[in-house]
Amino acid sequence: MPPIESGLSGSVTWKSPSNIAIVKYWGKYGEQLPRNPSVSFTLNNAFTKTSVSYITRPNDGGDIVDSFLFEGKEEPSFALRIENFLKSLIPRLPWLAHVKLKIETENSFPHSSGIASSASGMSALVLCLCDIEENITGQKTNQDEFKRKASFYSRLGSGSACRSIYPYAAIWGEHAKISDSHNEYAIPCIDIDDIFKTLHNDILIVSDKKKSVSSSAGHQLMVDNRFAPARYELANDRMIETLHALKNGDIKLLGNILENEALVLHALMMCSEPSYILMEPETIKLINTIRGFRRDTDLDVFFSLDAGPNIHLMYPDHQKDKVQSWINSELKPMCVDGRIVYDQVGTGPKKLI
Ligand code: PMV
């Protein structure tokens, strides 16, 4: 690394969205490498906005984070997680040992809404870092390389965060039949029908409590799960079916995969040793109500779940009037304090400043 002049300063701001997996990543090894490939939709309204101000300094081995504010307040536990993450990156990004950072971050969705913020949070932070690296070193990369690098480092922060970098949909994890697919970073899923580019994804809040078992612990339990080999094989097969559905605008096929993947994920949790359940009674009630409505109306409304009890309700934009009036009359009362985060598939991260 060329020497870094002390006293250079600047500031960057990025916003980066969350994502919801269609084919789920569940089970990892090594340095946050996935046991199976996954594909996700990039969201729009559920995002993190992060500003990072930097000043360069001689490497004194001290902390990288000078101050950290989450939604305007100090959050020592988040600050520590970020300090540790940044220190872990020094062997790959040695310039980090020569800066002090002031970090301010906020989520668009309410705190403790039960929505996982690690994908949006880690990707927003890493996009700022990649930008700062270019400012400090003067080495500019092209857009594709920049995104690949951002995806790589986001993965080290939180696996699924690596998929938030791309518009509409992203693929992460090696697959024999998907060229350029990689375990270390995600790639954009380009062949996607317009119907999915505006797909709605409303998050029905069933519980806003902290999960009883973290995703990291859940991934770990896959090591001894007797169903793991079958699961990884299924996920590989599903990737091909999903890419076919995305390309051809086959929303019924996609919806069928979405629901089955969500339930397989939770089944894997239930048959782990020790077993655990993250769904709540309201989750099951909502699933049955959604399936009943679909049967009665033939509308294309499907659910997904991430590692928690909240329902992600997906439907195409052209059916929104009918679906949303049903959501408001039937589903909203089943949500905690009537809370729903209305979201849609989106165009990916944006640099704000
Ligand atoms: O990125 P992590 O370690 O929080 O794991 C996320 C796993 C799921 O959200 C359940 C599935 C996925 O592919 O996003």
Kindly describe this structure:
The protein is of the alpha+beta class. It contains nine helices and 14 strands. Strands 1, 4, 5, 6, 7, 8, 9 and 14 form an eight-stranded mixed beta sheet that branches. A hairpin with a 2-residue loop joins β5 (65-70) and β6. The structure holds (3R)-3-hydroxy-3-methyl-5-(phosphonooxy)pentanoic acid. (3R)-3-hydroxy-3-methyl-5-(phosphonooxy)pentanoic acid (PMV) binds at residues 21, 24-26, 38, 118, 158-160, 215, 265, 306-307.
N-C termini distance: 27 Å
How many helices? The count is 9
Task: Report the structural category.
Answer: alpha+beta
- What is the 3D shape? globular
Model regions low in confidence, pLDDT < 50 over at least 5 residues: none
Helix content: 25-40%
Rg over CA atoms: 20 Å
- How large is the share of residues in beta strands? 15-25%
Bound molecules: (3R)-3-hydroxy-3-methyl-5-(phosphonooxy)pentanoic acid
H-E order: EEEEEEHEHHEEHEHHHHEEHEE
Q: Average pLDDT value? A: 96
Q: In total, how many beta strands?
A: 14
Report on the biggest sheet.
8 strands, mixed
